[in-house]
Predict the 3D structure of the following.
Amino acid sequence: MVTLDWIEPLALAHHFRDEEHLFLLYSGRKEAHTGRYSYLGVGQKKTCMPTHFSELPIDGHWFGYLGYNMRHDVEHYTPSRKSMVTLPASIFTQPEYLFKCDHDAMTIECISETVSPALPKTLTMLVTAPAPIIDTLHSNFTDASYLQSISD
């Protein structure tokens, strides 16, 4: 693990924008109740697609999602109607490099089995662009169209 000087997570992600496998879980710390950490994953060391809770990975740092219908593994519900989105039941990835950005301490930890000692200097030199400004996020669904899409 290497600790880096603070770089805005959006600027850090911007540096890796051409990577095939990249994710950013961003916490801008705008309000007291929001998260302290942002996580940036770069590269893909491993991937798994469990179809049951018993198959979930427990070693290392995994990021992903559990599909809504996996709830049937632990509780009995009436089956949902078929989704208009085709996704696997779940998918998890373990990134090659994981950057844990602490918005309070203003530090970044790079968690990886193969961290180069030159990484802090390289990132500081390469990440010179200011972070992109995101004013608002929009959905392609209106509230009414979303509710219609999930109703029976």
Remarks:
- The chain has a mean pLDDT of 80.
- The first strand starts at residue 2 and ends at 5.
- Helices lie at 9-15, 119-126, 143-150.
